[in-house]
Records
---
Amino acid sequence: MHQIYSQIINLVKSNISSADDSRIQFSDINYKAVDFNKNNFKKIDNKFNNNNKIVFIDGGSAEIIKSPNFSLNLIRVYCTIYKNDKRINSKKFDFYAFISAKNIGNELFYNADFIKLNDENDIIPSNEDLLLSSLDETIKQGITRASISNVANVIRRFSEIKTAINAIDDLENDDIIVLDGSLQCTFTNEKKYFEELYKKSIEKNIIICGLSKTTTLMTDKGNSISNALNKYNIVGKWLYHPVAEIKSTSHKAEMSFEKLHEKSRHIFRFEIYKYQKEKLHETISLLAANCKDAVFLGYPYGLIEADKNARISNQEKDMLLTLFSTKFGKDWEKIKDSLSNVDAHDILDNIC
């Protein structure tokens, strides 16, 4: 047994790359990587005016009822606004999305219907943008037909962007919107929502950016970006830029990496709308001022708050399922029959 552990330890050690990484490895020809260079590290300072507002947006979803041909989801988006490192406003939006399978032209499509929970809810995306083929490459799982459950991820993402579009109305020159995640369009019709967001942001001079908790990008040696940048042993908080020239029309961003607190061990991927890249250093400086909370040192507290309030707990999900089962009354037993085919995993998950 000792030999097995030693073998595993040696494999782990040998794959913590000590090789000299040259650049990020992109598979798409629309991305041209810039070679790593110590001169690309810039110190994050506090010389910029911190009177601008910062809006943080995140979303969550929970599947309440699922069968092979329909899925009922609760979608939640949370938006919080900070100024001078203090929250000045916040909003939470909830709505239900009922996704069903439809046969159109002898092909299986997924369609969404929405149930509003309040009159203020204007973040619901268009039904037309969510009529998606079950073989749509952006929601498929490998070579198999996409699960109907995957459509909820698209709805949540579109709603997050719509929330950002609406937030601009209450913002002023050089205020900032931070989305959770990158600015890359990954779903069919997502580009339409980003284009509207960018157009409106340019009209009012509102800065659009996104911060990713994690990144799957690797270097040309197969190393993580964090490991590659940490090898330079840069002290303090810093931003690293430029990283790549992005020519993709579905990813209108300037990419960088940041360490947002001098005592943090975390490096995050940060993107800003490419036509606002001259505001990168100023934006990062203001964002770093929001990264002092010990809960997650070096990560914006506004995004911690947004993540916490956008999440839908299993307890809330179970409560809603119980509520609906009661509302259906005697019909619930018939409905449960259509759910039985997808319950097997849940049963196994609960076996101790």
---
Amino acid sequence: VNYNWWLKFNDINLNEYILEALKNNSDSNIATLKLEEYNQFVKASFGAELPALTASVDAFKIHKSPIPSALMDDNGINLPLTASYELDLFLKNRDKTKSTKKQYEAYEAQVKSIYVSLVSNVASIYFNLVKINKIIELQEEILNIRKGILADLMDKYNKGVISEIDLNNAKQDIKAIEI
């Protein structure tokens, strides 16, 4: 997510909402953890291409025979080492590593799309709320203007300049706006 692009709007609330959404959205957090899991799969696949060295340790205690001998110790340690390497003549292991890396890259693009979708949804909802707030402000301003007009028409009606129909039309206009 290009957070700097959102900073250009100079709206502190929008920036805070985006940061909160990124921090608290469980889907994006799970996707990020899953991405790290795919990264570890790539490392494990690459490790299968390399030579392997295995070791095991075995400790033992020898029970001495009643006949003394200089050849037999009381304790012993057995430490076998095994080295192995699979010759990748047909590049089977290398192809597995490349495939795993491509899967990682594909999932990385999917994670980016999750973040972009999340941020765009948050921004869209925020902008709609700002627009609705502005519409409400303008509606209240129009209502106050109409009430002023009604007060003027009421004075004209009381002086006999306009008919009751004109006064009722102004009242209906106000009722329509209040709804």
---
Amino acid sequence: ERLFVVDQEGYVYVVHDGVTNEEPFLDLTADVSFDNNEQGLVTIEFHPRFHENRRFFVFYTDPDGDARLVEFQASESDPDRADPDSARLVIEVEQPHIWHQSGSLSFGPDGYLWMSLGDGGFIGDPNKNGQNRTNLLATIVRLDVDAEPYAIPPDNPYVGVETDELREIWAYGVRNPWRITVDPVSRLLFIPDVGQEGFEEIDVVSIDDGAGSNFGWSITEGTSCYFKEEPEEPTCDTTGITMPLVEYGRGGGCAVVGGPVYRGASIPELHGSYFYADYCGGWIRSLTTDGVAVSDVRDWTNDLGRLGSITSLATDGNGELIVTTIQGQVYRLDAVRE
């Protein structure tokens, strides 16, 4: 019955029946840096057993510009307020630049917390983090947060491998994956990855057999080879790279935004549809997939118009679609019945 709304400056608000509580659920403004539109308080994710343990997780950039995954608990006496004394640092990742923080969180049906991290910037991945598995930048991380500060799931791909790859990494080769989601029904991981110059992409793999996937950045952007500086004889080895399920040119937008797989009650004909949007294009689209083929692609612009600079698509407590924009709007999408 409550909607939790994240503000980049460091607040989390609670909305009851369309009315926002005067006091925020969480105030992290003293701990959060927000120097550009890719920083700040980015995500909140609730533990699958939140109603029992009151635990939730936030991802933000600190005053040094580094990324922090922090656990809190809701207050035992007031469920509309977080307990500020319950803060527990889970993981911290040094960021080389102010761009490409990513920071989306999603609990999977395996009970583990999945987290995305961008390549840290700047243009063209100058630090070559995309193909570097010795730090956590440009990766999808999978953690057991029921241990302190966390444990590494035993089936993560680099567990038991005598190399320098970090054991937290589940997949790599992403640039700025914005709003990953693990669908508990299909067991598919959806990774919308913001492009550099030519293409936006959505990578989709099964959480059962996709461990260790390399999504190509900065060897590839979308399905194309990426060359920051065009060599005289360009080469591009795509061996072992998992190509995106969906890509579109930047003429139709500039930054893909991932959403949920819809399973609400309001629009049953769209059950199983994955929703995504574009920050610059302001449009919303949906598709269905088994992870291999795409069908029933729909563009909802004629129905919804262009909603502004979309930052997130999510669901409320009833599984209905919620859309937020950088202009400050929070929309709920519903079916129109004659």
---
Amino acid sequence: MIDGSPQPTDPASRIVAGIETLTRWAAALRFEDIPEPIRVRAATVLADDLAAIVAARDEPELIGLTAGMAKSSGAAEATVFDGKGTRLDRYSAATVNGSAADWCELDEGYRRVICHAGLYCVPALLAEAEAGGATARDLLRALTVGYEIAGRVARAFGWATLTLHPHGSLAAVGAAASVAALRGLSAQEMAKAISTACTLVVPGPFNHTVEGALVRNVWPGVGAWSGLRAVDWTLCGITGRPESLHDVYASAFNGEPHPEELTDGLGEDWALSDGYHKLHACCQYAHSAVEASLALCAKVDASTIREIHIDTHWKGRHLDNAQPATTLAAKFSMQHILAATAQFGHAGAEAFHASTLTAPELAAMREKVTIGAYEPEPAWPNDRPARVTWVLSDGARVTEECLSARGGPDRPLDPSEVRAKIRGIVDAPYPAMGAVLERLLDLDPADLDRSWRDTVAAMTA
């Protein structure tokens, strides 16, 4: 019993009750209620995902997308972080920045389930906060709320296979939740906005990543637009139904509902605590493979490799494409990731440049990669392991393994590493941005109280 009312037992009603509880908590949450380590995590997610947006500024398809959006944009009110001073209406800016944020595979992710909660909140928040004149403090509170809701909704429905890609199926929910929090909607209005947004999601197939369909990169941008509009439409009475989350994710998408995930540990177990950050510009499922490969690079001459074999977890085995046709496919190709890491000694953006797709030596090495199962698979947080073996030209075999890649809550990166990554991306196109983000990461009170519009102006000056 809660407040004297009997609790529902069917999954759909339990989901409705869970969202009501979650949004009551979210609407009442003040910035001062957020523990300082979680505020720092929110600032880190914001800065890291903003850097991921900047990193994609020279991608030719993204440049074309920006030009196309500019043709139909309304009044300039929000920045596109393309290094060129582009400003569009908030919906167009959120669409472009959302599409850029996942392009280079450098955005933050949520480790407990398949979800990039920051990616689903940040692009819409950047546009809304700049257009609406919110403060950085307001933005970080809204990001904390949106991240919590996106992460919990992702946990509330489970799938046994990699069928739906979360960028399509969750981005609109994160955007709506965070924008609703930024605009100060009531708990009831926020619940309606979330229920509306979930009906606007994209049923993006997961295999589009492995096959390299670049439309996948646009799904977070579409979600940012849809989430913003879901809030707009909610305020004029156009909404889904209270059961929409269950209707979409359980009934339509055939997910297994776990209603308790919406409320268990609420206000104590923060979703932001379970995020991860990436130093390698490829799918996180392969980061353990990268780390094992780097350990081999440190002790063996990679030029003597004759064959590569990897035993890895079931999600990693889905990254099976020896002939990636696009840079996206390369970042989701275990063969390319292993071959490129061996050749270049890293898995940074250069290892997935368009020129690497047709490089003869890399193409030949990709064909020499075989993939097997790591059995038995360990429990979380070691549920994404890799054991990499190089067979050398003289027949010798050398092996290294990594049970869990660095960057997650079990093996966090040092804050200086994340800051160095951010500065390495933003310093050239935006010389002033790094210092501003450093102060934000330090939760400088003056910067928290400054309007985000002024902060953006300072970063892009």
